[in-house]
Amino acid sequence: GQQLNQSPQSMFIQEGEDVSMNCTSSSIFNTWLWYKQDPGEGPVLLIALYKAGELTSNGRLTAQFGITRKDSFLNISASIPSDVGIYFCAGLNYGGSQGNLIFGKGTKLSVKP
Amino acid sequence: SQTIHQWPATLVQPVGSPLSLECTVEGTSNPNLYWYRQAAGRGLQLLFYSVGIGQISSEVPQNLSASRPQDRQFILSSKKLLLSDSGFYLCARKQGVGYTFGSGTRLTVV
């Protein structure tokens, strides 16, 4: 089945540093999504990407839909303590998985003040 | 509103006891609904999804079952809990191309 490889698995950074994480797959996706999960809460959608090459920003967050449609990355600039949490990538292939999202295993981000 | 209600927020149950977690959603009718389980600090494991009343698809063989008795109600059940059933259970609904998640239920089996 379709799988997403998300890396790194975890990150420990200093406040103010930039963060970069990515997802890759052997399959093509039509849509890429990035979610953030705060401790003890459900994931919340951060950014949605709809076409290859698309670069989208949401405040300090920037995400890109890879040209090959098999990868995506998320950057966080000037991290702050409230950025801590687990970040998930998710891909959607309209023709597969019954239209369900495929999730990466998450990147756990810790920010040291 | 596309709100998702999950309860309870936390639950401690003994091994061998039954389980019933309920998820209700507001908003548009006939939503696709999902149950996920998350081990501590780990990824999301899809357990069940439903495209309509009485329609349940299971992703992994397990000790749990799901039912959808009403359009906006999705229930996760077990007849006898195992220690390995502990985790964070999340209900989600399809909204646009993505999902909206509930706030989750933390289940500890002791």
Plain-language structure description:
By secondary structure, chain A is mostly beta strands. Helices cover 0% and strands 51% of the residues of chain A. Chain A has strands spanning 5-7, 10-14, 19-24, 31-37, 44-49, 55-58, 61-65, 71-76, 85-92, 102-103, 107-112. In chain A, the strands form two sheets. In chain A, strands 2, 4, 5, 9, 10 and 11 form a six-stranded mixed β-sheet that branches. Chain A is globular. The termini of chain A are far apart. The mean pLDDT of chain A is 93. With 110 residues, chain B is an all-beta fold. Chain B has no helices and eleven strands. Chain B has strands at 4-7, 10-13, 19-25, 33-38, 44-52, 55-58, 65-70, 73-78, 87-95, 98-101, 105-109. In chain B, the strands form two sheets. In chain B, strands 2, 4, 5, 6, 9, 10 and 11 form a seven-stranded mixed β-sheet that branches. In chain B, strands 1-3-8-7 form a four-stranded antiparallel β-sheet, with no helix packed on it. Chain B is globular, with a radius of gyration of 13 Å. The N and C termini of chain B lie far apart (37 Å). The model of chain B has no long low-confidence stretch (mean pLDDT 92). The A-B interface holds A 31, 33, 35, 40-45, 48, 50, 86, 88, 90, 92, 98-101, 103-106, 108 and B 4, 32, 34, 41-44, 46, 49, 51, 57, 90, 92, 94, 96-104, 106.
Question: Which structural class matches the secondary elements of chain B?
Answer: mainly beta
Query: What gap, in angstroms, lies between the N and C termini of chain B?
Result: 37 Å
Shape of chain B: globular
What global shape of chain A is seen? globular
Total strands of chain A: the figure is: 11
The Cα radius of gyration of chain A reads 14 Å
Radius of gyration of chain B over alpha carbons?
13 Å
Helix segment tally of chain A = 0
Largest sheet of chain A: 6 strands, mixed
Q: Largest interface, with Cβ-Cβ < 8 Å? A: A-B, 24 and 24 residues
Identify low-pLDDT runs of chain B. Answer: none
Helix/strand/pairing category of chain A: mainly beta
Beta percentage of chain A is over 45%
Q: How many helical stretches of chain B?
A: 0
Q: Strand tally of chain B, please?
A: 11
Average per-residue pLDDT of chain A, rounded, comes to: 93
Mean pLDDT of chain B: 92
Distance between the termini of chain A: 41 Å
Q: How large is the share of residues in beta strands of chain B? A: over 45%
